[in-house]
């Protein structure tokens, strides 16, 4: 009986570890350790909107960005400064950054480094 319990408990622990994706590491010198998974990203004429998962307390101020220029092109990454600790059901929320806030020209090619994730 104890062997079965240990086997089942071990499989459950290993199964939980196997389903956790490895963290995406930010570029060297970035102000955050992991990149925020994005549900979507949309570029408009004046701004870039990212869609992230929120537990009810996610705000624009909770995010930092890292920018790296390569000629006219820009590499851009977003990460959370503060974790959303609210208890609401996870839902998508849009966060908009103007190109002026990001320091990017409206016609500059932008490459997002964040992983895309399905909700």
Automatic annotation (TrEMBL):
Q: Where is the signal peptide?
A: 1-20
- Keywords for the protein's UniProt record, in alphabetical order: Signal
Superkingdom assignment: Bacteria
Q: What is the name attached to this protein's record?
A: Lipoprotein
């Amino acid at each position: 009986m104890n062997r079965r319990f240990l086997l089942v408990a071990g499989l459950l622990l290993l199964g939980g570890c196997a389903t956790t994706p490895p963290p995406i590491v930010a570029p060297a010198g970035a102000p955050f350790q992991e990149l925020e998974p994005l549900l979507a990203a949309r570029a408009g004429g004046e701004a870039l909107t990212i869609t992230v998962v929120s537990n009810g307390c996610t705000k624009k101020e909770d995010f930092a960005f890292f920018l790296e220029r390569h000629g006219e092109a820009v590499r851009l990454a977003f990460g959370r400064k503060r974790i959303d600790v609210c208890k609401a059901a996870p839902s998508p929320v849009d966060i908009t950054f103007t190109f002026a806030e990001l320091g990017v020209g409206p016609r500059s090619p932008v490459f997002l480094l964040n992983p895309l994730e399905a909700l």
